Backbone:
C-alpha cells in the first residue's frame, strides 16, 4: 500500500511538472507592426490624401511634362465629408496653398491657388457610407510666372 501511495505521488508530481512547463512559459512575442502612415502621397505635387482613401486608378488621369503637372485624381474611402474638409484645409495650407473659396450644399467644393497653380477639390458622399473626392489640379513646375499673364488671368 505504501508503494502505491509513493507511485501515485510520483505520477502527481510528474503531471504537475509537465503542466507547468506547457503553460508556464511566456508566449512568443510577435514583432510589432509598423504604424500605418497617416498621409498618402499622390502624383500631384504637394497634394496628399488621408491613408483611409484609396485612389481610383481607372478614373484618375495625370499629365506630366518637364514644366507642367496636372489632371484629375479620384479617390474613395470610409471617412466623413467634414473630416475630409478639415483634412484638406490643414494640409493644403501647410503646403503653401491658399483657399480661394468654397461652395457647400449637399456636397463640398474647395478652391485653392498658389502662384504657379490652382486646385479644385470636390467632396461628395456616395453609397454605403463612402466618400468620394475628385481633385483637379494644374501647376507649372519651376519658378512661378512673374507679372500678369498675356491672357489677363
Residues:
Amino acid at each position: 500500500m505504501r508503494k502505491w501511495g509513493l507511485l501515485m505521488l510520483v505520477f502527481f508530481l510528474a503531471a504537475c511538472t509537465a503542466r507547468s512547463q506547457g503553460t508556464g512559459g511566456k508566449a512568443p512575442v510577435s514583432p510589432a507592426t509598423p504604424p500605418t502612415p497617416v498621409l498618402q502621397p499622390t502624383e500631384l505635387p504637394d497634394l496628399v490624401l488621408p491613408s483611409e482613401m484609396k485612389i481610383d486608378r481607372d478614373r484618375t488621369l495625370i499629365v506630366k511634362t518637364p514644366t507642367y503637372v496636372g489632371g484629375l485624381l479620384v479617390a474613395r474611402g470610409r471617412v466623413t465629408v467634414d473630416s475630409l474638409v478639415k483634412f484638406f484645409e490643414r494640409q493644403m495650407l501647410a503646403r503653401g496653398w491658399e483657399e480661394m473659396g468654397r461652395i457647400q450644399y449637399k456636397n463640398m467644393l474647395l478652391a485653392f491657388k498658389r502662384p504657379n497653380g490652382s486646385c479644385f477639390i470636390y467632396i461628395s458622399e456616395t453609397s454605403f457610407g463612402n466618400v468620394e473626392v475628385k481633385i483637379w489640379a494644374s501647376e507649372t513646375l519651376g519658378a512661378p510666372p512673374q507679372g500678369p499673364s498675356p491672357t489677363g488671368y
User: Anything to note?
Assistant: The first strand starts at residue 39 and ends at 41. The helical segments are 2-23, 81-94. The domain at 39-140 is CATH 3.30.310 (TATA-Binding Protein). The chain has a mean pLDDT of 83.
